[in-house]
Amino acid sequence: MSTAPLSSWNDGAARSAILDFVERSADVPPAERIATFDNDGTLWCEKPAYVQAMFILARLREQADADPALAARPVVQALLAGDLGAAAHAGGTEELVDVLLSTHSGLTAEAFAEVAAGWLAEARHPRFERPFADLVYAPMLELLELLRGAGFRVFVVTGGGVEFVRAASERLYGIGPDDVVGSAVEVAFERRDGRVVLVRQAKLMGSPNEGAPKALNIQAHVGRRPIFAAGNSAGDREMLEYATTGTHPSLALVVNHDDTEREYAYAGQSVTDPSAEAIADTAARAGWTVVSMRDDWARVFA
What we know:
By secondary structure, the protein is an alpha/beta fold. Helices cover 41% and strands 16% of the residues. Helix 12 (279-286) links the parallel strand 7 (251-256) and strand 8 (289-292). The longest helix has 19 residues, at 84-102. The mean pLDDT is 95.
């Protein structure tokens, strides 16, 4: 990347708002310069499906090939056919979630991280035919670099699985696993061959990290209110509100996917609440900064 700040950003209101915010934040105590970023659709491509969803389905396909009884279940057949609606109808939401969580249950935390990192290194995006790790947004990497240079501590706050993102966050974004907040599965304490291990269970730990839980988990994990937050869907609304209703200078950034040629064009919906107000409407009402992928980014992928 260029050494110039935000070199992949076109001149415009979004770039100016970011640079202005960084200048205004210079008077904020260093310990309170906290920035939080959603992951899917904010830092890397989330279409045609969440990367973690494709990772889970790849594992399910392997397991179904090896287990005829599993392959015969209607919910599994629907999932492997790519019909999420039929999968939910076939067995209900509870069975659907159980099947998805069971794909990696029984693995230790270390084994899961190894499996996830290995898959990310080899799997390729169906449209772009590049590894998923190549589909990180170059302008957002520059923004991460700019904020770190201004003394910010940067966190990923994702609705995705925290251990999945931790397996790649340092390599992708320069963000260590201890600075990733996300949805988590329960783990069990076990001793195997004289060694303590934490073993994944087929059960979520609490609620998915989307909506209000993002703000709650920032407090639980970080212990400080962010003054910068970036997202792209209605599931990020509460995190952006939290960041912009404190006492310090703040900035909320919304990535608008409006570029069908270089990526995709779609509205960012909340997974847990599809009826929630569109994030673009919330941003317009709240005065947040909206980033047009088509107009504000000179290039998309790193």
